[in-house]
Design goal:
This protein is of the alpha/beta class and 296 residues long. The protein has 2 domains: 152 residues, HUPs (Rossmann fold); 127 residues, Rossmann fold (3-Layer(aba) Sandwich). It has 9 helices and 10 strands. Strands 3-2-1-4-5-10-9-6-7-8 form a 10-stranded mixed beta sheet, with helices on both faces. It starts with 8 loop residues before the first strand and ends with a strand.
């Protein structure tokens, strides 16, 4: 039987906020470099449809409700058309490389629709915006981006709106957080395949409240291993210590001019997410550095 050609895509969820255009342009550039297409996905919640539940005789929408739904749908399509027009204009002017653009609309809770779509269709990466430094901890659970990175089965690139990087090609210094797990090595291989078109330097980083000699030895071993696997790759490493690890990490990011922090994203239960936010989530809301979340 002849196999069907699978066209992989860079998925960019859009909500037509301040993040949308920057995310879409990032997605177009990455899709072009990966020989893929970019999919712009807008998910919306309509209270009239009760989260996508089928309408039966016990549930009716009056004329006013129907008008509101139609207005909402019409506005979304207009906004999407405007976004695509801007991207195509940029391509025509040479400000963006050319790639295929697909637009999709899904009714339902945004994070659920994003995850569902990425699971059903082959994706190489999801690109999303986040609030970055200054976002309230109390709003953590309600963030669509935080929920997606916790549950996505594909890599997620999450960036703050004021990020200076315009393309993954601009990311010349990448910090890779490791806890010396075997899956970290697999996640690193995933990152290397994803960023294969680009040239950059990697810093293997380990966070610890206390300095341990074995940490240095392990990092040195990881460096030696990947130098054999990727002879052209510039690799360094460091142990970040202190009582306030996030603050110490931020200082290291500034000192070494890191453009991205990459890490493996662990799947965790809803209870652990409620009471013990992951390092990935902490990075999203307490740093202005973009984060690349990887699945082993």
């Amino acid at each position: 039987m002849e196999e069907k050609l699978v066209v992989k895509s860079v998925l960019v969820p859009v909500d037509f906020s301040v993040f949308t255009l920057k995310a879409a342009r990032l997605g177009v550039r990455l899709a072009h470099d990966l020989n893929a297409e970019v999919t712009l996905l807008h998910s919306y919640y309509s209270p009239f449809y009760a989260g996508g539940m089928p309408i039966n005789d016990a549930f009716a929408i009056n004329d006013e409700g129907n008008d509101m739904i139609q207005q909402q749908i019409s506005k979304m399509h207009d906004q999407m058309e405007e976004l695509v027009a801007i991207l195509q204009h940029d391509m025509k002017q040479g400000d963006l490389p050319t790639c295929g653009i697909v637009t999709k609309f899904r009714e339902g809770v945004p994070e659920e629709q994003i995850l569902s779509y990425s699971n059903r269709h082959p994706q190489q990466i999801i690109i999303m915006g986040t609030h970055g430094n200054g976002f309230k901890e109390s709003d953590l659970l309600g963030s669509v981006t935080a929920e997606v990175i916790e549950r996505s089965t594909v890599p997620v690139f999450a960036f703050p709106v004021d990020m200076p990087v315009e393309s993954m090609a601009d990311c010349k210094h990448i910090g890779f957080l490791t806890n010396f797990e075997q899956q970290d090595l697999v996640a690193f291989e995933t990152m290397m395949q994803l960023l294969k078109p680009y040239t950059f330097k990697v810093y293997f980083l380990h966070l610890s409240t206390e300095a341990e000699t074995w940490d240095e030895i392990k990092l040195s071993g990881i460096k030696a291993y990947f130098e054999k696997q990727y002879s052209a790759l510039d690799i360094s490493y460091g142990v970040i210590c202190g009582d306030k690890l996030m603050q110490s990490l931020d200082e290291f990011i500034r000192e070494q001019h890191l453009d991205v922090i990459a890490m493996m994203a662990h799947k965790r239960s809803i209870f652990s997410r409620l009471f013990n936010p992951s390092m990935a989530s902490k990075m999203l809301f307490h740093s202005n550095t973009p984060v690349l979340l990887l699945r082993p």
